[in-house]
Design a protein that fits this description.
heterotetramer; A: 291 residues; Alpha-Beta Plaits; 9 helices; rod-shaped; B: 269 residues; alpha/beta; Rossmann fold; 4-stranded antiparallel sheet; 10 strands; 30% helix; disordered C terminus; binds adenosine-5'-triphosphate; binds magnesium ion
């Protein structure tokens, strides 16, 4: 074990024998990692947006004209306590007329209707779709539940909304992971090739070590150590650069109707990036010895 | 002068197996012959379509000294490469340092190379490392402790007149100095079998004499030496040395005892 | 000239002396180019979406109650011929009531209003913002123009819409080009370093050529040629890979409310990618000789 | 035997400037001295803190033959490196092949190197290319046409006994064969000034004699030769050769006429 550490330490010292090659390698790996990181950042934020928006199913509940407002209000209270409710807005007939009037002209155009208000009481309910695949059935159940409320005349619900949610789910399943995988592959190839290329500059060294009787692990341990160092240094640098980029762009989408504050990669993603890059660098060093 | 057999330092070549000990396993390519002996039986080697070695047979007893001579391209380096498993042996049988080369497994190659010290014709030193580091490499690879290493490296570097260059990168050395580094690296492990390929090509007469004295000293302490050379003057420097003269890959002349049994066997078939 | 071509040809042949290094280089460069290409593809499609949506300013024009429908219709025809008009919808009072009724319950709840329709005639107009920075002034002018139409009681227009458009413009100005620039830089670094690294494997060769008296351009011409080849081959491969990826993902966002068919990079972008990668490879070869 | 001065082939070294022609410009480092002459005046060279050459002065007339001798590390290679601008000349003045080394501009280095043919101690051949390609390289660099090139390369390769290896990669050659490729490359351009650094280190006596005959032939046709060597036997092979013996970077002994004016001038100041 001590010997292994010593060999690793030697690997790190030896990196300075080829400072240029090392510098090139680290910067190329860093840049590849930055590219991957930008993708991760993008996917992470898109995914967050999706998660925030996807699950909402919206219902509009209309009560009978002239329903007892006392009872309707009591029902509203019951509705407000329902599971998975995300948002609820209620309209008395007066509020509805006011809104309609405002929508139409903003000048009290329908004031003359006030005495004989034709509009019913209504409520707008948005529910988060609970996790699981039975969202359709669940929504149907909810619809039925709402329809049988006393004095409710009609419940509208928009199945397109459900489609959208389902589509997003399928997109994030069918695109995001394959794209991530492809991305990881690309980064692995770039990083691996860069490392292998820099191994080529050390081929003579490896040959000589083997000629004087070094065991394979004696040759490899230092290379693995320097591979690990390259990977850690590069991914560290890459995360630093990403953070800078993020600070620069954090609020760039934070304007009126979008209000999207770009969030940085969560810890797991950072660790993932570091891990993958380091692993690939070490694998590159390992394979490089065979060439 | 350095001492090839220091009293305290154990012989490194034998670190893992004492000479004369019976071989532990033969499947892997370990031979039943005595450690330190070199034996070739009808060995041939082909590069593509040209024969670099053809039916070479000889036996060098433990502690022998052999000069390999021959014109440029005769096959001297090829023969030496076979000995340290720098080339795989496909035709014929050979035994060296207790290993049977024709059965040698990949994972036993490092072990073989720790028993055989080689001075390469093209030096094969690391240009970016210092003289000290290059020489110490041979010990480091064998897992020698730091203090022991320092002492031995200093001794051999001094013996070869490289003291003042100890901490110079090898890329900054003259041709002769590089050659001496290569020699120092092979000597520092106190080898029992030395293969030297043209070790005096870049050295002047005085240095050559000094160097041959070092080789002779190792030899007198029991090391087996095989040296490929063009330099006729050094042939006379070792009175009891054998000579194997190669011509186009074949043994043209030799002072070694030649076994005649193999062609005989062939005649019987 | 002929000599130069011969040297270039020699450069190409010589690539096969170091097949591994070349293969590594080409694949690393290809992968970097693919990454850049994915970004380009993304930006291109986002940008297209933005261009399609950004410029719309929407106006709602309400006529006086009981305005002469003949005259209103004539005005509609004039409006339909206006510059930059993107979309226009018109509503007679009957249509408006029908829509309202449908919106409220879908069951003819407001049928009883038909005799005395309280709703006015109205029109929905969406205009593309013409290029240039004076969109605000232009929109104000348009608003004034619409207000003075005979019998028009009110014109509503949503300034948020304008904000959105302006914000998108500023985003695409403040983000997309910096990101593209950064991206180009990153790719240049990865590619350049990879090429320089592969040059390291040819350092001895360069030294020897110079020692036997080769003029600098004699050394460089073949390297530039092989750099150019590397660049062209890599970007060609990268475009091929991108196209495959595109074919795979073309219709992945083409579901109900999104309807986004991802389009491939236009010719100019492809040429740009090829050009940048090739130039960077050649520059890398050029610089590599000095190291 | 190859002819150093072919009747039809023009002398390549003089392609751009005929010998004896007055120099066209002197600012750039071209000298007023006769082409082909080598002159050193109080030349020194320091690597870091160690003097590789110290106050070396000599004059070698056009067509002269000079052996550089000295122990390993004496500075022979350093002297030769200065001559082909492999190292920059900072102290002293030197003239070679019509160039003043102390004034030499970077862009004139290729021109200088086309006039000076060098056999490097470590060969400096391209291992991945064939023998033919390596030898042809020297001609290619000088822009020689293909047919002329083939003829000359074949001739020199035959003369050095490498015919059968013409299309072998140099990585697959023996040490002596590689050395001969390096020699062939320097000879193929029909040089007027040859610098050879230890050209016989990997060659046996017969080949050495052959090779020295080639050098002598070039010499007899008017080429200037400077050869660094350890091999004392070859010193006698060229009867009219001068010897410059270096010791720790200083001229210890020489058969060249030594100019005494510089120390004299110093005495006057
Ligand atoms: N890797 C190789 N591939 C093909 N041929 C080779 C290879 N190595 C050596 N040869 C050929 O094998 C023959 C013997 O080579 P070897 O190096 O053994 O000669 P040598 O006796 O050491 O010569 P020298 O004295 O010049 O070093 C030569 O003709 C050489 O060209
Ligand atoms: N690049 C360098 N950096 C530092 N020192 C150097 C460098 N090249 C040579 N030297 C030193 O300069 C001295 C002269 O070296 P040089 O190569 O000229 O010797 P040489 O006479 O050719 O020796 P040999 O016969 O061994 O080839 C040596 O001590 C060497 O170590
Ligand atoms: Mg040899
Ligand atoms: Mg030398």
């Amino acid at each position: 074990m001590l010997r292994f550490l010593r060999l690793g330490w030697r690997g790190l010292r030896e990196m300075f024998l080829h400072p240029w090659a090392q510098l090139f390698t680290i910067s190329a790996v860093t840049m590849a990692a930055v590219l991957a990181g930008i993708f991760l950042l993008l996917l992470h934020n898109v995914n967050q947006e999706l998660i925030r928006n996807r699950g909402a199913v919206e219902f509009q509940v209309f009560w009978r004209e002239g329903a007892d407002m006392e009872q309707v209000r009591r029902e509203w209270q019951r509705l407000a306590a329902m599971d998975h409710l995300k948002e609820m807005e209620t309209f008395t007939p007066e509020q509805a007329l006011e809104g309609l009037s405002r929508d139409l002209s903003g000048q009290g155009a329908l004031d003359w209707l006030e005495e004989k208000n034709p509009l019913p009481a209504s409520a707008f309910l948005a529910f988060n779709i609970p996790p699981g695949d039975h969202s359709e059935i669940w929504a149907k159940g909810l619809l039925a539940e709402l329809r049988v409320l006393p004095d409710v005349r009609a419940v509208h619900y928009n199945p397109v909304q459900m489609d959208l949610a389902k589509s997003w789910l399928s997109v994030s399943r069918s695109v995001i992971w394959p794209v991530m995988g492809f991305l990881a592959l690309v980064v692995a190839l770039v990083v691996g090739n860069t490392v292998k290329l820099s191994m080529l500059t050390r081929r003579d060294e490896i040959e000589i070590l083997s000629l004087v009787g070094a065991r394979p692990w004696y040759i490899r341990a230092p290379l693995l150590a320097s591979g690990a160092f390259t990977g850690l240094a590069s991914s560290g640098l890459a995360l630093g650069l990403l953070r800078l980029l993020h600070l620069r762009l954090e609020h760039v989408l934070d304007f009126p109707p979008v209000f999207l504050v770009i969030s940085f990669l969560p810890m797991e993603h950072c660790l993932l990036l570091t891990g993958v890059v380091t692993a690939v660098c070490m694998a590159g060093s390992w394979v490089g010895v065979r060439q | 002068m350095i001492s090839p057999c220091p009293v305290r330092g154990k012989s490194l070549a034998n670190k893992e197996e004492a000479p004369g000990k019976p071989p532990r396993f033969t499947k892997s390519g370990r031979a039943g012959t005595e450690f330190g002996m070199v034996e070739f039986k009808r060995v041939s080697y082909v590069f593509g379509s040209s024969w670099a070695l053809k039916d070479v047979s000889f036996t060098l007893e433990k502690g022998g000294f052999l000069f390999l001579t021959g014109h440029s391209g005769a096959g001297k380096t090829t023969l030496l490469r076979l000995l340290y498993a720098g080339l795989p042996l496909h035709r014929g049988r050979a035994t060296v340092a207790g290993f049977e080369l024709h059965k040698l497994r990949r994972r036993h190659v490092p072990e073989l190379r720790r028993r055989v010290s080689v001075v390469f014709q093209d030096f094969k030193i690391l240009p970016q490392r210092t003289v000290f580091e290059n020489v110490a490499l041979a010990l480091e690879v064998r897992g020698v402790t730091r203090q022991h290493m320092e002492r031995r490296v200093r001794a051999i570097v001094r013996a070869l007149g490289l003291e003042s260059k100890s901490y110079t990168r090898c890329a900054h050395l003259s041709g002769g100095e590089q050659q001496r580094v290569a020699i120092a690296r092979s000597m520092v492990v106190n080898p029992k079998l030395i293969l030297a390929d043209e070790p005096t090509g870049n050295l002047d007469a005085d240095l050559t004499t000094d160097l041959m004295n070092i080789f002779k000293q190792f030899h007198s302490y029991g090391a087996t030496v095989i040296m490929a050379t063009h330099n006729r003057t050094i042939l006379n420097m070792v009175p009891d040395a054998h000579i194997l003269h190669l011509e186009q890959g074949q043994v043209a002349e030799t002072t070694l005892p030649v076994e005649q049994d193999e062609p005989h066997t062939e005649g019987l078939l």
